[in-house]
Amino acid sequence: MKIGFIGLGIMGSAMCANIIRKHDDEVYVFDALKEKTDLLVKEGGIGCTSAKEVAEKADLIITMVPKSAHVEAVKEEILEVLDETKIWIDMSTIDPDVSVKISEEVKKTGAAFLDAPVVKSRPAAEAGKLGIYVGCEEKDYEKVLPVLSYMGENIIRMGDNGKGLVMKICHNALVSQIQNGVNETSSLAAKNGIDILTFAKAISYGGGQNFYLDSKKDVIAREDFTTAFSIANMHKDVHICLDLAKQSNLDMPGEANAARVYDEAMEKGYGNEDFSATVKVVRGRKAC
């Protein structure tokens, strides 16, 4: 099976590198920025000059791009070359309703379509230890599971098309609210002379222990917000969540509060920093 990978950013490049190393057939690669394509060619991928070229040559096409509009642009480019011999896995985090509409168009060509967004960040992508939530027909899931296993170790089919994305949005919404709780309480502790590392150690003794704090305490202590997962990407995800909640007739005040923090982080120009940099927003706020 020949694989094609479109979108070689922070996550996509690491995911694609794992496929190149582990797969025993050709892997075609493309990114809109040629230098990113060239980096994966050095890893052993076969460079292409367009998404369409990837789709023409590959049996299984994987996309990992930033937003709904980017996935729709890929669809417009590759739809005419899709047929019953092709499978498209979109691993981007986009609006679930947009993904479902794309799946319907793709299926009309005879091709299979799966949404398979990932959780965790760059280090897990490099190690091939991502979590992957899949939305698709069951028969298609079995076909692609070996390929998904190149990139992740915890893979679960959530249901039909769109359900993988619903789960990813729920996951990231929960992370954003846990994060905001960490930001607020650790800032309060700091105001009263307790540093973040001591705070994290003390939290680990009780029911407040959480993966976010455990994994980010050191970067917060160093104030080194080198991007593993950007504020801009999480900003997009929390607003997808609020849109989905509105469509579902559900009020989510906790997520609305997290969204306000992300809105402020974007306004302050932090968008390209790691999402843990939201702590700077909370630290900078004054009591009402």
Write the layout of secondary structure elements.
Blueprint: E1 3-6, H1 10-22, E2 27-30, H2 34-42, E3 46-47, H3 51-57, E4 60-63, H4 68-78, E5 87-90, H5 96-108, E6 112-115, E7 118-119, H6 122-127, E8 130-135, H7 138-151, E9 152-159, H8 163-191, H9 196-203, H10 211-222, H11 231-247, H12 253-267, H13 278-283
Parallel strand pairs: 1-2, 1-4, 2-3, 4-5, 5-6, 8-9
Antiparallel strand pairs: 7-8
Helix pairs in contact: 4-5, 8-11, 8-12, 11-12
Strand segment count: 9
Overall geometry: globular
How much helicity do the residues have?
55-70%
Contiguous uncertain segments of 5+ residues: none
Average pLDDT figure: 97
Q: How many H/I helices?
A: 13
Radius of gyration: 20 Å
Main sheet properties: 6 strands, parallel
Distance between the termini: 60 Å
- Compressed to H and E, one letter per element, the order equals EHEHEHEHEHEEHEHEHHHHHH
Q: Say what oligomer this is.
A: single chain
What can be said about this structure in brief?
By secondary structure, this protein is of the alpha/beta class.
Walk me through what this model shows:
The protein has 288 residues and is of the alpha/beta class. 56% of the residues lie in helices and 13% in strands. It is built from 13 helices and nine strands. The chain has helices at residues 10-22, 34-42, 51-57, 68-78, 96-108, 122-127, 138-151, 163-191, 196-203, 211-222, 231-247, 253-267, 278-283, and strands spanning 3-6, 27-30, 46-47, 60-63, 87-90, 112-115, 118-119, 130-135, 152-159. The chain has a six-stranded parallel beta sheet, sandwiched between helices. A three-stranded mixed beta sheet has the order 7-8-9. Helix 2 (34-42) links the parallel strand 2 (27-30) and strand 3. Helix 11 (231-247) packs antiparallel against helix 12 (253-267). The radius of gyration is 20 Å and the shape is globular. The termini are far apart. The mean pLDDT is 97.
